[in-house]
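User: I'm writing a short methods note and want a consistent example. For ER membrane protein complex subunit 2, I'll paste the sequence; you return only the structure tokens, no commentary, since I'll be parsing the reply automatically.
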Amino acid sequence: KVRVKANFEFNNARRMVHNPKTALRLYESAEQKYMEVLSSNPNDVQTNLNLAEALRNKMKVKCSGMKSELSTFLDENDSDYKKAERAYGNVHPERLGENGGDDPYWRLMYGQFLWSSGGRLDRAEHQLFMCISLAPACPRFIQTYATFIGEMATKCKDPHLVKEYMEQSHLFSIRAQVVRLLRQGVEKEKLQQTLGISTEDLWRASGIRLGAAPPPPP
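Assistant:
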């Protein structure tokens, strides 16, 4: 019954596009009910995912009406990020080690959560880069990172960083296409012709190191 009520509130909140105050109240109420369900069954996958989604949407609403500095917003909502991290961690507890372990799908989910909830882009970059460090032959992970870096370029005010982000996004996008084509059986010699790119771009995209990611930001 509690979960049904939570789902009802959650779905209603999603419809309140033009009424952020009501949406926020409904998301917070749904969040409490999901937490209640999880108190007796902490590893329930769907409830954990629903909780994380409610937290994400709640923070998007709060961030859209934000009047304070971003750093203040992040400090004030740090407990929500921690709740979401636990929720995603509970989805695959047996596959998780410390700090997210080595499950790239968990990294993808949590990275996208951080990306879309507004704010924690430094941590999102770490999680999404970890995806491709753990699974360098997965085009989906590489393309997600390329898209993320491209969006970072649009938010950045430093022209040197904008150029760097755009270049990285371009190269990672090529890398994703290369990996996809190789999986489909396209010969290495035909990659450049198939993609219609320069030899230099192909060489640089193929040379991206996908080793260990740097340590996560604080």
